[in-house]
Amino acid sequence: MTDARETAAETVLRTAGGGPPDDAAAGVAVGGAPIPLLEPREGIPPVVADEHALAEVVAAFAAGRGPVAVDAERASGYRYGQRAYLVQLRREGAGTALIDPVGCPDLTALGEVLGDAEWILHAATQDLPCLRDIGMVPTTLFDTELAGRLAGFPRVGLGAMVESVLGYALEKGHSAVDWSTRPLPEPWLRYAALDVELLRDLRDALEEELDGQGKLEWARQEFAAIAAAPPAPPRKDPWRRTSGMHRVRRRRQMAVVREMWTLRDRIAQRRDVSPGKVLGDAAIVEAALALPVDVAALSALNGFGQRQGRRQLEQWQGAVDRARALPEDRLPAQGQVVTGPPPPRAWADKDPAAAARLSAARAAVTALAEALNLPPENLITPDTVRRVCWEPPAEPTADAVAAALAGHGARPWQVEQVTPVLVGALTAVEKS
């Protein structure tokens, strides 16, 4: 990789307001230990929590220049769902803004004035759903985490990227706090402001790195695909993702998981708390395996001890009783309907030739990814490889394999890179 630190250092000095920033707030380490980034360049901005203050931010960011750095904080593990509890933005000419989506739940006006700007996010797919819910949808973006993956960085968390690329150390101690807390403590706000402080500088350094590696067009195609992706549909049978579900094998037991999961989700939504704070997955699985006949039997199971009151125990036992009373034709199926290939572990028995194709294709993709210095899953998704190997073209020509890859959603750069190695793998297996 090219040495992005020195160019990034110049960028920081150039964008910090015309002159060298305060060393304690925004120093740059060109070599040696990273320099702690302790304070935002303009200090911690006030939290925007009413329509008047929001209107001022909208006007300021509309008058700003260039890309806009965007981040969002959720309260995962504390609150129900994945809504945003703080939105951070930074743009040249506008500075940094911290917006409270509880006080300002509709940021459509802000999203509209930023519609033509490039949005810089880190791990964009994590933040885009909650931003979309409050009216903020980018048309173009730059994902610094994905850029790091494509560039071959071994660690792509924001702190690791800022340190390795820009020479700064970000304090990351507040990443998992309860962001629904009001008022938000000053150290948390400082942390939040710093998360967007250097995103523009990181973006510029990574663009230079990708360009030097000949991967910039690859990244642009990936970013465009993320920006154009529609909202994910609701997950079918989400209760099947209960941790420990692999232990639940009988349909009656599965019905218990479904009933208890659904009841827990309803309670969690009403109380606006994380479902795990209502009842743990392990307790649901224990109840499903034991099929308790009454509250006394339920209370003896792990997860249903002294912390559960009589009324709570009765509601959980009610869920068990409903599952026990279901007729056979209303019990859950053993597994979900599979529309694509079966799990790879079953290929050897179901279709040995397909299993051989998959083994050869995986090896070829892994070798190519190593040569290109990027993760295999970013070169091509494992699901795409499985689908092509399970139902390969009648003749594994370059045109046929390329069409198959594109049909499964591969981007043009992926089709160009992967087609030759897949053709080779499929042809070798066909001839063996």
From TrEMBL:
PROSITE patterns, per the entry: HRDC
Ranges where the HRDC domain occurs: 250-330
InterPro entries xref list: 3'-5'_exonuclease_dom, Exo_C, HRDC-like_sf, HRDC_dom, HRDC_dom_sf, RNase_D-like, RNaseH-like_sf, RNaseH_sf
Gene3D superfamilies associated with the record: HRDC domain (1.10.150.80), Ribonuclease H-like superfamily/Ribonuclease H (3.30.420.10)
GO BP terms, alphabetized: nucleobase-containing compound metabolic process
Region annotated Disordered, chain positions: 1-21
GO molecular-function terms, A-Z: 3'-5' exonuclease activity; nucleic acid binding; nucleotide binding
Stored SMART domains: 35EXOc, HRDC
Protein name from the UniProt record: Ribonuclease D
Organism per entry: Streptomyces solincola
